[in-house]
Amino acid sequence: MPDKTPLIQVKNLDLYFGAFHALKNVSVDFHSGELVGLVGDNGAGKTTLIRVLCGIHKPTSGEVWFDGRQVKEFHPKLAIDNGIETIQQSVGLCDNLSIARNFYLGREPVRRIMGIPFLDMGKMRDLSTKVIREFGLRDNVSADDEVERLSGGERQSVKIGRAVEFKNRVVIMDEPTNHLSVREREHVNELALQLKEQGLLVIYITHDIFQVHKLANRIVIMENGEKIEDALTSSMTADQLEEVIRQGGRKVEKREAV
Amino acid sequence: MALAALKPLVRRHAEIGIFLIAALLVLWFSASSDGRWANFYNLASVLQVTATLGLMSLGVALVIGTGEIDISVGSTFGMGALVYLWLALRVDPALAMLAAVAVGAAIGAFNGLLITRTGTPSLIITLGSLMIFRGIAIALTEGFSFSIPYGDRSGATYWALGGGDLLGINTALVWLVVILVVLTVTLKMTPFGNRLLAVGGSASSAHSRGVRVDRIKLAAFVLSGVLAAFSGTLEAGKLGFADGSMGRLMELQAIASCVLGGCLLAGGRISLIGALVGAFVLSSIQSYLVVMGVKPQWFMLLLGIIVVAAAYGDRRLRNWSVTR
């Protein structure tokens, strides 16, 4: 069962990109041991919201609390140090670097020689090789190959493998099954469940309410930068939630008119 | 086909093109100059020019590695030379060198902070600082040159800072080799190098992995400023004098060296040794034109034509390497 105090608490969050109001007064709690499906149409603000949580965007106003402390400074480094691993949709891998170097980018293991930090390439190769084998990359792909060589599915696998390997307290997955085959998709969904069982918080973003309804214990629906639904999967069926998404925009307008 | 076996090698090492061009030019220059180009004295002078241009190119290559560009290095070179000459006699040559390097670091920090804090393209910021520091150099010298009389240029420090020869070759070359090794190791074998190339490959991906993109870029600009000013110090140490125009247009040669040497202007892929060989090619061409008695007014034109031809040849080689 989820803890009483939320691990991540978002309070009245607003975010503007110039004049564009990307997040509108969003408040939501996330607990350890939960698998939360974050659902909504394109442009609903799902990715923007998690990019605040993983430190890429700084909110214009509102508060974010992590583990009982208010987050004052937003940078991916701080989020990672706090144990938040994120599988981003469009970023996360540098094509010009090898798999091993990408794997450890920003947290490179070092061996000091006369105080100077040198990359521990042996360690970097070993662990990333283990992970790419587990995640079924082609046999002729080595950890020293540049990411440029990889297919879309293999890139996604590297990102997922990295997040799982470094998992700590939170794993955020933004459309994790994109580019993946049916079998790989099942593998990823199974991993998400395992992480939840291990007591981590998993936030799973997708368009597909039916897919995530089977996995998640709670669904948060966003629309036009607002949270419009937050319900346990035990209390609403996937069909009911889909109806909410379909009606979403209109319902919001009605609320504003009142 | 034996040649086809070379394709993967060429693909992986963008600097192979410039090695090939350098080898061809050396053969051509040696064969066609009747010993006037390929003699020890002339080659030593080519290597001295390679050393100063090469040091500058190494710094520019690091900045290119982050996906930015630094065209202010010609002025930084001049500032380094002037600061060194101004202080060497008044204070001490070693301290003068440190002061010159500090000025270079300050110019680099000026560039780097403006670029990362304001998000303005580095091309326009460093174009501006190219003019600003050239303007300061011209204003400071008021049309005269700073110099150290030959008789005062004795002692180990003067010797080590470009003022003397080791085995007949200017000491600047020793600095170049040492700095090349240090920077290559830094780039390939340290977290800083990994992050620098990551920033050039995809700044947003690097950022999402927790890399402090702005700090990496700032560090690259500072290194570039330091190397350009140090290179100016070595040139001033050799010549013993400098005026406000010292290092003019060198920034373009440094960028050409990098690009010829296989550095991708988009960032993320650079070759330090390639940039050096690029600098060697440019200084070889210049010296060839001199020894062949070509009138100086034709230098620019001929240098430009050869650079374009070399770039084209390199492009052909690159394209060939990716065909089946």
Automatic annotation (TrEMBL), chain A:
Residues covered by the ABC transporter domain: 8-249
A Pfam entry, by short name: ABC_tran
GO MF annotation, one: ATP hydrolysis activity
Parts of the chain that traverse the membrane: none
Top-level taxonomic group: Bacteria
Keyword terms of this UniProt record: ATP-binding, Nucleotide-binding
InterPro entries: AAA+_ATPase, ABC_carbohydrate_import_ATPase, ABC_transporter-like_ATP-bd, P-loop_NTPase
SUPFAM superfamilies (alphabetical): P-loop containing nucleoside triphosphate hydrolases
Keyword check for ATP-binding: yes
Name of this chain's protein: ATP-binding cassette domain-containing protein
Species, as recorded: Paracoccus lichenicola
From TrEMBL, chain B:
Transmembrane segments: 12-31, 43-64, 71-89, 95-116, 123-146, 166-187, 216-234, 246-265, 272-291, 297-314
GO molecular function: transmembrane transporter activity
Pfam families named in the record: BPD_transp_2
Keyword set, alphabetical order: Cell membrane, Membrane, Transmembrane, Transmembrane helix
GO cellular component, one term: plasma membrane
Taxonomic lineage of the native organism: Bacteria, Pseudomonadati, Pseudomonadota, Alphaproteobacteria, Rhodobacterales
Membrane topology: Multi-pass membrane protein
The organism of origin for this protein: Paracoccus lichenicola
InterPro entries assigned to the protein according to its UniProt record, in alphabetical order: ABC_transp_permease
Protein name: ABC transporter permease
Subcellular location: Cell membrane
